[in-house]
């Protein structure tokens, strides 16, 4: 009897590990590009983890900078990371990467939400047509928000220019609203929001 209990426990453990790997082999990878992240820190995380869920804000006014919030899955455990990097030509910048302890169940719920909503199908705005119904909606020198799902050699990363501003000023874009909801879900696990 004890033998069967141990055998059953071992089988359940193996199946649960397989389930974590299998959750990455979803349809999102069919939409993804075979590519490596261009940020050095993000690239390192990409190469050393099974899955990354990334929210980044990039600004290009008065120089380029980016803020990253990342949930990284490796061997069934999630870790959060945050960092800021200024990307100026000819200036070496070493970001201060801050690992965070995050709740595994909450991170699994975020990943499940992103899969259920199929956020990889969000087209992004390609830097144009932010608000076609209201000519009074305009912002200059704003930020681009990006939601990336990254595996070891795959990336899908819809992006919107100032999505919260345009959603408030010109509501009704269901893809943009889903994008914002997904960002809010991801950042809520990491505390202190955006």
Structural commentary:
This protein has 194 residues and is of the alpha+beta class. Helix 4 runs antiparallel to helix 6. The longest helix has 21 residues, at 2-22. 27% of the residues are buried. The protein contains six helices and eight strands. A hairpin with a 2-residue loop joins strand 3 and strand 4. The chain has one domain (2-189). The N and C termini lie far apart (53 Å). The protein is globular. It has helices at 2-22, 28-31, 40-48, 104-116, 163-169, 174-189, and strands at 33-34, 51-59, 64-74, 77-87, 98-100, 143-150, 154-156, 159-161. Strands 1, 2, 3, 4, 5, 6, 7 and 8 form an eight-stranded antiparallel beta sheet that branches. Keywords: Signal. Residues 1-22 form the signal peptide.
